[in-house]
Amino acid sequence: MYTLVVDCMGSDGGSKVTVAGIKLFLTKHSNVKIIAVGKKEELEELQSENNVEIVDARDVVPMESGALEVMRMRKSSMMIALDLMKENGYDGVVSAGSTGGFLSAATVKLKLVEGVDRAALISPFPTAIKGKKVVVLDIGASNENTPEQLVQFAKMGRIYSNKVMKVEKPKIYLLSNGAEDEKGSPEVKEAHKMLKEMNFEGFVGNIEGRDALNGDCDVIVTGGFAGNVFLKSVEGVASMMKGMIKKAFYRNLKSKIGYVLAKKGFDEMSETMDYKSTGGAMLLGVNGVVVKAHGSSDGYSFSCALDVAYRMVEGKVVELLKQGVGEIE
Amino acid sequence: MYTLVVDCMGSDGGSKVTVAGIKLFLTKHSNVKIIAVGKKEELEELQSENNVEIVDARDVVPMESGALEVMRMRKSSMMIALDLMKENGYDGVVSAGSTGGFLSAATVKLKLVEGVDRAALISPFPTAIKGKKVVVLDIGASNENTPEQLVQFAKMGRIYSNKVMKVEKPKIYLLSNGAEDEKGSPEVKEAHKMLKEMNFEGFVGNIEGRDALNGDCDVIVTGGFAGNVFLKSVEGVASMMKGMIKKAFYRNLKSKIGYVLAKKGFDEMSETMDYKSTGGAMLLGVNGVVVKAHGSSDGYSFSCALDVAYRMVEGKVVELLKQGVGEIE
Fold first, then answer.
1. In angstroms, what separates the C-alpha of B254 from chain A's closest C-alpha?
2. Which helix (H) or strand (E) holds A228?
3. Residue B34 forms part of a structural domain
């Protein structure tokens, strides 16, 4: 039996979304206990569930809160969830609340795994190949990273791809400004050299942003600053183009009929580009499974975030990280 | 009368493309002389043009050549074009050849403007607002940049936006991992502070990749590494989604009819997302106008690159850079 602690309050859609997500998740998993933290009057629907324990929390962390603000809100659902996780050694914690606040507070509370210098935020991206996702880390836990940290990210990414995404032999790349070995920021160049010298299993070489989503890669390693720029550029262009597609179809009656006729292909496209099913972003390198669901989650995507936490627990990701991310292999 | 030197050989499409581009350009500009450098037997079509001087060059720089390789190929069209530019103080030079090679060789030959620490590569991006473009610099001339260099880029970007894009009061942003003032890599944070303290005209604040193309910004300042990641991610997602749109329409007869009905809106979308009309990337901070046309240029886009060079010369961009990019205002 696994135990996941859930911050039920922090999401744009409020507790309705998280409650729906938990219920959906539990229809698929009977071996998981959920500790649901939040205003108990909003969680009543969960009382009839077998594997749910409700813990009352009166405060809600505002969506844009930073780390300090969160740490001060000791009676918030987010902090109580993290406290419960820490005190009881539960398997994982999931929140759709303030990203910065949740991740920093989780790092402070749960502490880094020994040998890990920096936690990394990892997230799967859709690729040009249907059904294939690539994980990218770090997408924003740090503002700058050393070459050694990039090598640690490569190790964490490999474990994640193998154990959670179920890729047998993950192909790992460094995000750079050119595919050639000698391209990159000073940190990327040095990390490249280190990975080559240690014959890092699965390391292929550098990759440019334009090829990152071609479906060939399993893991893309980057410092947090460039990774965040990558994440947000991809999201930005995708959403801009989605808006343009909508506009093109809504132009007039003719184009609307055109939409009806071409709908199937475009539905498939939205499915491929759908970030909802990815479950959000995962914090790797801390003592415990930490999943940050999208703030804009609906019930389905929140249940996907719980699924990811479950798969991370089942894949013993944290135990594997403890076995040697810090060591040079 | 302005004079532009053109490397007619370095392009995926060969001299056919550059010759067509020059001819198209000259139909619109009678006050420009073109020095066309390349294999003279391939440039015969230009002999009948009034304002063209053909200079024979026997060697062609391969597309993937680095700086050293280019510098060694003294009889290549690219090096002869740069030599002519330097010796005669011509107004500008345009090439569609190897990016790395051309830009490095141009920097070595023409030298940096006094007070400029690093040249920056600038390029316009389409935005969500039809017809509005935003310029981003540096998109890859450097691998790392100091805060002082970022401030210089802001100045160069402002001059470019004002003089070439004709934006009266350019709105300038720093590309960062969050819109808040305190977000960013150490360099971005420091540059932000410097720009604020000097009351830099037009500086608004930080912007995330996802908002960079919303049409509100005129200039986005970034270090070359993150800028290159931004450029290539944007290109990558845009091309991936274009492929998906095509696939969705080509699915079956019904969807093909759908395409015919919705075509107008989608044509407009391609136009908005079209990188061909942007003319390529411009190197700012060297003594002379340097334009790198897309390697995959066709005649039309090569003529756009010549247009950009013309507008930079007409806008006296280099003279303005000389007047004080290095100084703190």
1. 5
2. helix A224-249
3. yes
End-to-end CA distance of chain B: 33
Contact yes or no for A30/A56 (Cβ under 8 A):
no
Chain A residues in contact with B231 (beta carbon < 8 A): 209
User: Measured between alpha carbons, how far is A246 from A242 in angstroms, rounded to an integer?
Assistant: 6
Say yes or no: A2 and A72 in one domain.
Answer: yes
What band does A121 get if pLDDT is binned at 50, 70 and 90?
Answer: very high
Residue B226: closest C-alpha in chain A = A226
Query: Given CB atoms, is A251 within the 8 Å cutoff of chain B?
Result: yes
Asked if residue A268 and residue A130 are part of one domain, the reply reads yes
pLDDT tens digits for A234-287?
888 888 888 888 888 888 888 888 888 888 888 877 777 666 667 789 999 999
For residues B96 and B235, membership in a common domain is answered with no
State the residue for tokens 């997500």. A21
Give the count of alpha carbons within 13 A of B105, CB side only: 32
Residues A61 and A191 in one domain: no
- The answer to whether residue A261 neighbours chain B at the CB level (below 8 Å) is yes
Q: Are residues B178 and B72 in the same domain?
A: no
CA distance A173 to A176: 9
Stronger pLDDT, B264 or A314, i.e. the higher one = A314
Percent of chain B with pLDDT over 90: 66
Chain A (72-101) residues lying within 8 Å, Cβ to Cβ, of chain B? none
Residue A329: is its pLDDT beyond 80? Answer: no
Residue B279 lies in a domain: no
Q: Do residues B92 and B288 lie in contact, with contact meaning Cβ atoms separated by under 8 Å? A: yes
Number of domains in chain A: 2
The residue in chain B having the minimum alpha-carbon distance to the alpha carbon of residue A184 is B143
d(C-alpha B30, C-alpha A83), whole Å: 75
Same domain, B27 and B87: yes
pLDDT digits (tens, 9 = 90+) for A141-154: 999 999 999 999 99
pLDDT value of position B266: 82
Please tell me whether residues B209 and B255 are part of one structural domain: yes
Q: Give the CATH number, domain containing residue A53.
A: 3.40.718.10
CB contact under 8 A, B262 and A255: yes
- How sure is the predictor about B276, in pLDDT bands with cuts at 50, 70 and 90? low
Residues in chain B with CB shorter than 8 Å from the CB of A178 are 100
For residue B159, tell me if it sits in a domain.
yes
pLDDT confidence of residue B328: 43
A18: helix, strand or coil: helix
Is the Cβ of B212 closer than 8 Å to some Cβ of chain A?
A: yes
Task: State mean pLDDT over A131-145.
Answer: 92
Same domain, A87 and A6: yes
Q: Stretch B12-32: mean pLDDT, rounded? A: 94
Residue A119: φ, ψ to 5°: -70, 155
| Enclosing domain of residue A15 | 1-116+285-329
Q: How confident is the model at residue B68 (pLDDT cuts 50, 70, 90)?
A: confident
